[in-house]
Amino acid sequence: MRKVVLYIAQSLDGYIAGEGGDLGWLDMAAREGEDYGYGEFIKSVDTVIMGRKTYDKVMSFGIGFPHPDKKCYVISRKRREAEGNPEFYGGNLGELVWRLRNEEGKDIFLDGGAEVVREFLERDLIDEYVISILPVLIGSGTRLFLEHEIFLKLRLVSSRAYDSGLVQLRYERKHDCL
Length: 178
Fold this sequence. Notes:
21% helix; alpha/beta
């Protein structure tokens, strides 16, 4: 069965964006010339799910849609015209994930943002968490994990430290057997 994988970067103090959605702090990772496994990861997925704010931010860069070869769902309450190939989806997330998991294909990339991550987390729809922690403190902005009402156990699968100071953690959802 296909897995939903959250693959995302955050600051050491837990933010995925600075004030006003600023992502400038991510540039320090890009300057290192390392892709931190992203190239290999992106080959392992054929479907992307992202929030509307994340989609808008990515499109504001003016470089076009980053996943033209993948099926993409933008989670939004409103449908609209989109550049690239995304489908705006406002239905039940559990039904969407159930349908996708049961189709043939590669894994599913959950690309954020924080509100979509919280929705998936509260519905226990994330199978694997790949979190790259950058060695910066940005102090305020949007936290990766917003307040939520669920307790989940995770199992560390791997960790890797890079020369740049970035640490990548890979966790999977731990299902307790009764």
